[in-house]
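Ops channel
N.P.: pipeline sanity check, posting one input/output pair.
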């Protein structure tokens, strides 16, 4: 429940007016005179309630500010990692999107290049090393995205090798018995179909990568907007101008 300063002031003013009203009536000799001894218990209770509300408001404000300070620290620690992920993935997104279905088997090469994957290390190690500013949870998200995409690209590379071999065999069919020429043509058709199927799966994963990058960008925007709100509240509380 949100309590404004105006609410506290209104309650305190009402309590004061209540007590002074009776006292003023006593001074003027009005019919409804005020005897402090008779109203002492009620007056004390009203004053205690007013002070209690003021104390509650003070504690509530302090706790709210403490929560917002912790949130500010969390966002400040989170944003550099998000920005690093956004920059790195966008540098990967552009060349991957320029690949045609016939050349999507090269996706693996681009992934290895962007993350600097060495021959003697796994993709997860390279991703974590490249994202030094990101927290462990964010690194895990990126590792999962890249692991699935690179594995599918590796499978597509295998299908590309099979298709190239089938085309080569068909081109050199004179070296084979005429009885297997039909089988060679069928092998080409099958290998092409397999390649197209895996290339389509890579395309689906690239769409997923686009959505993931968009979600990273939204997190950055939301964090930056939340920081603006928090800093305004803290400036009002501490009486500063954001200096």
């Amino acid at each position: 429940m949100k309590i404004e300063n105006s609410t506290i002031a209104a309650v305190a003013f009402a309590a004061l007016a209540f007590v002074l009203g009776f006292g003023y009536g006593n001074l003027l000799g009005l019919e409804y005179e005020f005897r402090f001894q008779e109203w002492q218990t009620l007056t004390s209770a009203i004053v205690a309630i007013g002070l209690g509300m003021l104390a509650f408001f003070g504690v509530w404000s302090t706790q709210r500010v403490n929560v917002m300070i912790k949130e500010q620290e969390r966002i400040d620690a989170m944003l550099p990692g998000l920005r690093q992920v956004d920059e790195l993935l966008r540098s990967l997104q552009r060349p991957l999107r320029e690949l045609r279905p016939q050349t999507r088997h090269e996706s693996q090469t681009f992934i290895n290049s962007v993350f600097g994957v060495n021959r003697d290390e796994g993709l997860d190690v390279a991703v974590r090393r490249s994202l030094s500013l990101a927290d462990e949870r964010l690194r895990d998200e990126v590792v999962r995205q890249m692991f699935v995409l690179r594995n599918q690209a590796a499978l597509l590379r295998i299908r590309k090798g099979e298709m190239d071999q089938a085309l080569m065999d068909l081109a050199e069919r004179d070296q084979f018995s005429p009885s297997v020429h039909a089988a060679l043509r069928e092998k080409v058709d099958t290998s092409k179909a397999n390649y197209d199927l895996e290339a389509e799966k890579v395309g689906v994963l690239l769409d997923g990568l686009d959505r993931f990058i968009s979600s990273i960008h939204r997190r950055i925007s939301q964090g930056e907007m939340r920081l603006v709100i928090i800093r305004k509240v803290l400036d009002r509380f501490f009486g500063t101008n954001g200096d």
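N.P.: looks fine end to end. Residues 36-98 form the longest helix (63 residues).
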